[in-house]
């Protein structure tokens, strides 16, 4: 699939996420998020060998592993606490660099990663399974993906 420039590295917030859209190999549009990896930045920009981070940036599909219809970033940036992404609906915590859930109903699960690269101050989607579509949330998303309860039936 075609790679594409997502945004400038400086547009990725240190304490939230940058939301954009991708299309998978079947043509289905999905949301993805960029997150600054605070742990990587603290190490002087060196990423861990077991992550897909580049220049302190990680990229994940925009859904919680507990209930995959729940978005982490609902359009105004995902909440973060102590360098981890937080699912506002379930209270699950995900490491920014690995995507591993460290607390909550999906503890031990991992967010779905997408490969990105940083070049000349810009972030590019380099994952062959996805094509960059545009920035922002899905257009015409009529589904109510919010949850008002932690109770499952």
Salient structural properties:
single chain, 153 residues, globular
Would you give an account of this structure?
The protein has 153 residues and is mainly β. The protein is 3% helix and 33% strand. The chain is built from one helix and eleven strands, in the order βββαββββββββ. It has one helix spanning 38-42; strands at residues 4-8, 17-24, 29-36, 57-61, 80-81, 84-86, 93-95, 101-103, 116-119, 122-125, 130-135. Strands 4-3-2-11 form a four-stranded antiparallel sheet. A four-stranded antiparallel sheet has the order 5-6-7-8, with no helix packed on it. A three-stranded antiparallel sheet has the order 1-10-9, with no helix packed on it. A hairpin with a 4-residue loop joins β2 and β3. The model is unreliable at 39-53 (pLDDT under 50).
């Amino acid at each position: 699939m075609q790679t594409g420039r997502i945004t400038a590295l400086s547009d990725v917030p240190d304490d939230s996420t940058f939301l954009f859209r991708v299309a998978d190999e079947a043509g289905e549009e999905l949301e993805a998020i960029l997150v600054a990896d605070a742990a990587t930045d603290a190490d002087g920009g060196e990423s861990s060998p077991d992550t897909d981070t580049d220049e302190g940036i990680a990229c994940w599909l925009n859904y919680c592993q507990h209930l995959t219809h729940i978005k982490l970033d609902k359009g105004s940036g995902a909440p973060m606490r102590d360098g981890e992404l937080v699912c506002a609906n379930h209270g699950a915590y995900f490491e920014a660099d690995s995507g591993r859930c460290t607390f909550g109903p999906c503890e031990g699960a991992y967010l779905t990663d997408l490969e990105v690269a940083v070049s000349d101050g810009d972030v590019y989607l380099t994952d062959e399974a996805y094509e960059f579509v545009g920035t922002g949330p899905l257009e015409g998303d009529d589904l109510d993906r919010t949850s008002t309860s932690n109770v499952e039936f």
